[in-house]
Design goal:
With 261 residues, the chain is α/β, with parallel strands linked by helices. The chain contains eight helices and ten strands. The protein has a five-stranded parallel beta sheet with strand order 3-10-4-5-6. A hairpin with a 2-residue loop joins strand 7 and strand 8. The longest helix is centred in the middle third of the chain and has 18 residues, at 160-177. It is elongated, with a radius of gyration of 26 Å. It starts with a strand and ends with a helix. Residues 1-7 have low confidence and may be disordered.
Length: 261
């Protein structure tokens, strides 16, 4: 049976070739006490299969209905197949939803204590469209932290400078959100950071930079105790919330894309 819609005749089909793919999600149990993405996204093969599903007709009859209804005029029947070679000076590849980083040392308490989070989770927390609407709170009890400590997950590597800058930017936002918050950032400092950034960072009120190495984090009641060393001297610091500065790692997706370049 042919029926009319908006002055166009559409033929309904009963033979749907494939059902819409269901978006994979993490379980309800996995969502508790963290900021993990609920929707995982389609694997590449499923995404390709979804893209091949026709939006309405499901098989072309040459009726030109799609061309008539496409207001942006994206459909061009006169276009022929062609191979285009593009040349670029630089190619920027983004991870999308996947933020991969090297495993965090067990003694730093990540995954063991709820109020030990990564810089990536803090970024989501700071976002006004994030899970807490931009409110900074301890995942342990929902309280607003008065003392935050940033620590490096890996005290060596070429990521240190960029990691420090990332952490400081997050700390500045947090300090602007919470009036009585104090932040200490414990990390080795590169010569580049000391020369180009440290003089400006030291002017930021309520932000302290400690050149040291975090060794372990322990839960002490509702507080966390950070054990660290400065030039070999053992020290301790307490905090409501510990933020671990991660060491970025290329995801399998990025490695696969690079293999094509």
């Amino acid at each position: 049976m042919i029926y009319e819609k908006e002055k166009r005749y559409i033929i309904p089909f009963d033979d749907v070739p494939s059902k819409r793919a269901k978006m994979p999600e993490i379980s309800i149990e996995e969502r508790k006490g963290n900021f993990k993405e609920v929707e995982l996204g389609f694997p590449e093969e499923v995404a390709i299969k979804e893209a091949k599903r026709c939006l309405s007709c499901r098989r072309c009859l040459g009726c030109a209905l799609c061309w008539a209804e496409c207001k942006p005029e994206a459909i061009d029947f006169s276009m022929s197949d062609e191979e285009i070679v593009l040349t670029f000076d630089e190619i920027i590849i983004t991870d999308g939803l996947e933020n991969a980083f090297y495993p965090i040392r067990e003694e730093l308490g990540y995954g063991k204590y709820a109020n030990v989070i990564t810089d990536l989770k803090l970024e989501r927390m700071l976002g006004e469209t994030g899970p807490t609407d931009g409110l900074i709170m301890s995942p342990l009890d929902g309280s607003i932290p008065k003392k935050m400590v940033f620590i490096q997950s890996y005290p060596e590597g070429d990521h240190i400078t960029s990691s420090l800058i990332y952490g400081i930017n997050e700390a500045i936002i947090a300090l602007n959100r919470i009036d009585d918050l104090e932040v200490n950032l414990i990390s080795p400092l590169t010569e580049q950071f000391k020369k180009e950034y440290l003089p400006q960072v030291e002017k930021i009120q309520r932000l302290k930079i400690t050149e040291g190495i975090a060794e372990s984090v322990e839960q002490n009641g509702m507080m966390l105790t950070i054990n660290y060393s400065v030039n070999g001297d053992k020290k301790k610091e307490e905090a409501d919330l510990v933020v671990i500065l991660t060491k970025p790692k290329e995801s399998e997706y990025i490695q696969r894309i690079k293999s094509y370049i």
